[in-house]
């Protein structure tokens, strides 16, 4: 079983005047197709930086990132754009819907870059809205929908291009706790059914516990790996690989010397 994402020796160092901030301080991990991964840690631990590297939105200072066999740290901007359009869906905390388009048009949007006809785009968009249980809201504009509904539109838009990988940075950050549970249940359901790979960033340990595997990050390092009990995909990965293919890192005290 080959990983869909491999990260090796990944560093991101920000220089602010004379000070160097190690936002990522030597990350090593593999992610397999079908896993729901949570990158969890307190504010400033490096979660967003990590996600931005994986999505090719920022260049690493050092190290390699291989996604579906391609070294994305070596790609130029044009190649990265093409790569993201092919393989990646994004779910944002603030939904990022286009206010003057209705729900269906928002979901259909990413298909425009693929030269899909309008009729086909709208049909697909409606399918995905129905999958998210908001088919009835197809003609509403974002400001006529609740936060939970808007985020379902956001998820439908991420899924419509049928990406192998979905990135989500604090996707439930603007939702109340009840809606958060609903949206997480929906996301987990889709990941399982469609065998998508979902990488979600969160500061909230409870939200992270929805994932099959949690990577806990402190000061730009993974300090702990937590596997969800009775996770089908983790059992399958274990079975296929014979042994745990990932290192379950011992818990390290926060603030311990680098
Ligand atoms: P998180 O998403 O876990 O809150 P970030 O990845 O945003 O953390 O940030 C990790 C660290 O890197 C923090 O110390 C942050 O201040 C620093 N950092 C992030 N982006 C930049 C940047 N563009 N310039 C300077 N420092 C940054
Ligand atoms: Mg962040």
TrEMBL record:
Taken from the record, one Pfam family name reads: ABC_tran
> What residue stretches are annotated with the ABC transporter domain?
5-244
Q: Which keywords annotate this record?
A: ATP-binding, Nucleotide-binding, Transport
Entry superkingdom: Bacteria
Q: Which InterPro entries match?
A: AAA+_ATPase, ABC_transporter-like_ATP-bd, ABC_transporter-like_CS, MacB-like_ATP-bd, P-loop_NTPase
Coiled-coil intervals, chain numbering: none
Q: Does the keyword Amino-acid biosynthesis apply?
A: no
One GO cellular component assignment for this chain's record is: membrane protein complex
One GO MF term on file is: transmembrane transporter activity
Which PANTHER family does the annotation name?
Answer: CELL DIVISION ATP-BINDING PROTEIN FTSE, LIPOPROTEIN-RELEASING SYSTEM ATP-BINDING PROTEIN LOLD
- UniProt similarity note: Belongs to the ABC transporter superfamily.
- Provide the protein name: ABC transporter ATP-binding protein
Protein's organism: Oribacterium sinus
Lineage of the native species? Bacteria, Bacillati, Bacillota, Clostridia, Lachnospirales
């Amino acid at each position: 079983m080959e990983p869909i994402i491999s990260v090796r020796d990944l560093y991101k160092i920000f220089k602010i005047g004379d000070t160097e901030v190690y936002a990522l301080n030597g990350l090593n991990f593999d992610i397999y197709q079908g896993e729901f991964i949570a990158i969890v840690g307190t504010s400033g631990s490096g979660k967003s930086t990590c996600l931005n590297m994986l999505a090719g939105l920022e260049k690493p200072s050092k190290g390699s990132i291989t996604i579906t066999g391609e070294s994305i740290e070596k790609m130029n901007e044009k190649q990265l754009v093409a790569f993201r359009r092919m393989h990646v869906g994004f779910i944002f905390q603030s939904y990022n819907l286009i206010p003057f388009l209705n729900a269906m048009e928002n979901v259909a949007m990413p298909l425009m870059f693929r030269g899909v006809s309008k009729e086909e785009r709208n049909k697909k968009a409606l399918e995905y809205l129905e999958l998210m249980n908001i088919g009835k809201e197809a003609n509403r504009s974002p400001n006529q929908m609740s936060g939970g509904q808007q985020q379902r539109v956001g998820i439908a838009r991420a899924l419509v291009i049928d990406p192998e990988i979905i990135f989500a940075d604090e996707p439930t950050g603007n939702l109340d706790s009840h809606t958060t549970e609903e949206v997480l249940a929906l996301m987990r359901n889709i990941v399982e059914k469609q065998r998508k790979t979902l990488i979600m960033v969160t500061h909230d340990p409870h939200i992270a516990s929805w994932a099959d595997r949690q990577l806990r990050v402190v000061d730009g390092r993974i300090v702990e790996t937590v596997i969800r009990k009775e996770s089908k995909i983790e059992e399958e990965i274990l079975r296929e690989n014979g042994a745990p293919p990932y290192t379950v890192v011992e818990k390290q005290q926060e603030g311990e010397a680098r």
